[in-house]
Amino acid sequence: MTQEINFAQARFMLSSLERKDWVADRGAEVAFVGRSNVGKSSAINAITNQKSLARTSKTPGRTQLLVFFELLEDIRLVDLPGYGFAKTPIAVRNRWQEQIVEYLSTRESLKGLVIPMDIRRPFTELDQQMMSWTDDLQLPIHILLTKADKLSRGKANSVLLDVQKRWLANYDASVQLFSAPKRLGVDVAREKLQKWLKGNSNNS
Ligand SMILES: Nc1nc2c(ncn2[C@@H]2O[C@H](COP(=O)(O)OP(=O)(O)OP(=O)(O)O)[C@@H](O)[C@H]2O)c(=O)[nH]1
Ligand SMILES: [Mg+2]
């Protein structure tokens, strides 16, 4: 029987941009990667049921480092800096991008990617680039359509169907509705993470 992860036990380990400081590449981890301000850090807080484990902000570009959280020994979540925030100085942006690319393409303990997208603007050009690029890495992808509370239930469901029909025909990924303040979709997201982090051979 696999061990249940208690997400509420998550704790901050360290944050750093530099590879030499990253947590040892052992065990299993899942990274949250996506456009700036879509709610990556808020999703991590909702999933771990902690108000301010990951720092959130109204100002885009808040998460500027790779932030590692431990769930169990050798089992982690990672909050990555958001991409696509135009006001970030180019030199800084390039540096983040380099580190994100390096992380995603070399990290052996990485078992899957959660890509949060604002439900009001899913699959931006940058998201599409990210999806195609990560597809080549053969990592399973799970999309959170965040801020679902900003739309009516009917509208949110129609975006969900549209995403499934229009986009997921081309990519090997799953998708769900999510709202951090309403805690919508937290259980579904946890199940997915549990499966990737603690599952056996079937990690799709
Ligand atoms: N209404 C609503 N607001 C949300 C939700 N998730 C996040 N927000 C708000 O969106 C803003 C950005 O949230 P963050 O979690 O900091 O976003 P992020 O993707 O981590 O941003 P960066 O670290 O800058 O890339 C904050 O003001 C949050 O309160 C949600 O599900 N619903
Ligand atoms: Mg963040």
- What is the beta-strand fraction? 15-25%
The SS-based structural class is alpha/beta
From N to C, what is the helix and strand string? EEHEEHEHEHEH
> How are strands sequenced across the largest beta sheet?
1-3-4-2-5-6-7
The CATH homology group name: P-loop containing nucleotide triphosphate hydrolases
CATH class: Alpha Beta
Characterize the main sheet.
7 strands, mixed
Structure in words:
With 204 residues, the protein is α/β, with parallel strands linked by helices. It has a single domain, classed as P-loop containing nucleotide triphosphate hydrolases (Rossmann fold). It has helices at residues 40-48, 90-106, 125-136, 153-166, 186-198, and strands spanning 11-16, 28-32, 66-72, 75-79, 110-118, 141-146, 173-177. A seven-stranded mixed sheet has the order 1-3-4-2-5-6-7, with helices on both faces. Helix 3 links the parallel strand 5 and strand 6 (141-146). The mean pLDDT is 90. It binds guanosine-5'-triphosphate and magnesium ion.
